[in-house]
Amino acid sequence: MNDDYLEVRGVCVDFDGFRAIDDVDLTLLQGRLHFLIGPNGAGKTTLVDAVTGLVPASGLIRYRNQDLLRTKPHRIVRSGIGRTFQTATVFEGLSVLQNLDIAGGIHRRAWRMGLARRGTPSYVEEALETIGLTDLRERPAGVLAHGQKQWLEIGMLLVQDARVMLLDEPVAGMSAEEREQTGDLLRRIGSERTIVVIEHDMEFVRSYADVVTVMHAGKVLAEGTVAEIQADPRVQEVYLGRTAEEADHA
Ligand SMILES: Nc1ncnc2c1ncn2[C@@H]1O[C@H](COP(=O)(O)OP(=O)(O)OP(=O)(O)O)[C@@H](O)[C@H]1O
């Protein structure tokens, strides 16, 4: 196996004596769409916070032989790990292109020099193309549709050259069409990246997940394909049971 995977071993996060993440093990492989599901409060966002250095954690989180628990958040970004949050964090008053400029800060010098001579650098053009916003590049991000803002955020990770993308509920609030476009986008960019999606939308999980990890009360309850997860009685009890029942009545 190459070293392009994220390894989580025995990770714990405590908040004033409350154990929000409890001895979590995960191996996130490149080229698979990995989904993290579980009831509210299961610890999904906190786990992503631990990987990106936003909360202190114990245990081991390693990417490309780098120990992330001993790495500062901005260096974690530089080492190729990017994330989105539940609410979009684009700069609404700035254009799509300016948002990508800011996100590509690691490359900024090269771009500034390049801009004077050659216009928009190729990696920004590629990101615009990939997220489908080429024609909207001069638009203020604030006027974009909800789905387009989420795609811009993903574009911002692309220009950062994030090899690992941790996406917190990227399709929340999207129309069915936007969800499908997002799923296709994740498939395209996921073939050469490690992508982890926190998601509540089970229809979306069923359509796009290669691997699903179910969290409950800070622990990994189960891991497998959608079919394996759905057949697991422990998962049905804490989480999918409710969803499956709802699906039966739908
Ligand atoms: N900064 C914090 N201080 C104290 N407790 C926290 C903090 N952040 C999260 N928690 C608690 O940790 C637990 C896990 O929260 P987390 O947000 O990671 O869950 P989640 O699975 O992402 O839930 P949701 O699906 O609702 O987003 C919850 O009980 C939450 O209240």
UniProtKB/TrEMBL annotation:
<keyword id="KW-0547">Nucleotide-binding</keyword>
<dbReference type="GO" id="GO:0005886">
    <property type="term" value="C:plasma membrane"/>
</dbReference>
<dbReference type="InterPro" id="IPR051120">
    <property type="entry name" value="ABC_AA/LPS_Transport"/>
</dbReference>
<dbReference type="Pfam" id="PF00005">
    <property type="entry name" value="ABC_tran"/>
</dbReference>
<dbReference type="GO" id="GO:0005524">
    <property type="term" value="F:ATP binding"/>
</dbReference>
<feature type="domain" description="ABC transporter">
    <location>
        <begin position="6"/>
        <end position="242"/>
    </location>
</feature>
<dbReference type="InterPro" id="IPR017781">
    <property type="entry name" value="ABC_transptr_urea_ATP-bd_UrtD"/>
</dbReference>
<dbReference type="Pfam" id="PF12399">
    <property type="entry name" value="BCA_ABC_TP_C"/>
</dbReference>
<dbReference type="InterPro" id="IPR003439">
    <property type="entry name" value="ABC_transporter-like_ATP-bd"/>
</dbReference>
<dbReference type="InterPro" id="IPR027417">
    <property type="entry name" value="P-loop_NTPase"/>
</dbReference>
<dbReference type="GO" id="GO:0016887">
    <property type="term" value="F:ATP hydrolysis activity"/>
</dbReference>
<keyword id="KW-0813">Transport</keyword>
<protein>
    <submittedName>
        <fullName>Urea transport system ATP-binding protein</fullName>
    </submittedName>
</protein>
<keyword id="KW-0067">ATP-binding</keyword>
<dbReference type="InterPro" id="IPR032823">
    <property type="entry name" value="BCA_ABC_TP_C"/>
</dbReference>
<dbReference type="InterPro" id="IPR003593">
    <property type="entry name" value="AAA+_ATPase"/>
</dbReference>
